[in-house]
Amino acid sequence: MSKIKILIVEDESIIALNLKESLQDLGYEPCGIAPNKCKTMKILEKGVVPDLILMDIYLKGPTTGIELAKELKNILPFTPVIFLTANSEVETIKKASEALAYGYLLKPYKKSNLHAAIEIALSKAAEDNVKNRRLDATQNVNKTLVHQLELNTEQQSRTIQLKYGYLYDKEKEILYYGDEPVKLTAKEIKIIKYLCNSPGHNVSQEQLEYAIWQDEPAGYAAFRSVLFRLRNKIHKDLITNQNNTGYKIELF
């Protein structure tokens, strides 16, 4: 089993070396020592991924340990940070908590306290990471459901549910029976399209004729011939004759 890798960010070299020895004695693997932000970044740029970071709050240089910890959250979002400081003021602890610290260790520290702080931080971070993964998974599922709902809503707005298992897609101008498109001629689909512009309502024969032959109607016989062939391809009662005054396509 691989050892837990711990990065030490401490600007006092003696304290840093003591920490390194203590970590080794406790069975951890110190994976680097950095006195400031610049050296910390150089270590991480080499591909080092620590399991935990021990961070001095008051580092020498323009970037404090608290500021650096906040920046590292973007690079190492799942790596817990334990702050090290000789300052026990409430304001300092409050600032450290704002950086989402997993522990706070006062100098000088006991090895047993160091060990306890590390184990508690690792355990808490593992729990948080599991919760975050579950939350991400839930959010992804929710996004998928929302997307599916949007697709369904979009599909519903462009389709008309007809009787006897038929569905008309207004955008594609296709009549479906179940999942299969019904093979219709251009004139036949024009009848379906025009009837579906006013689904469930009566449409006169003259209107349908003009829908098929826009320039000049071909006459009653030609219309009846097209309608007869269309009705032979679909359910006989999907298109009904309304007392010889026109035709209606039946909604679901």
From TrEMBL:
SUPFAM superfamilies: C-terminal effector domain of the bipartite response regulators, CheY-like
Residues carrying 4-aspartylphosphate: 56
Gene Ontology MF terms in the entry: phosphorelay response regulator activity; transcription cis-regulatory region binding
DNA-binding region in chain numbering: 157-251
Domain OmpR/PhoB-type span(s) in chain numbering: 157-251
Gene3D superfamilies: 3.40.50.2300, Winged helix-like DNA-binding domain superfamily/Winged helix DNA-binding domain
Family matches, as PROSITE patterns: OMPR_PHOB (PS51755), RESPONSE_REGULATORY (PS50110)
Response regulatory domain mapped to chain residues: 5-122
Any single GO CC term annotated in Swiss-Prot or TrEMBL for this entry: cytosol
Record GO biological process: regulation of DNA-templated transcription
Keywords: DNA-binding, Phosphoprotein, Transcription, Transcription regulation, Two-component regulatory system
Protein name: Response regulator
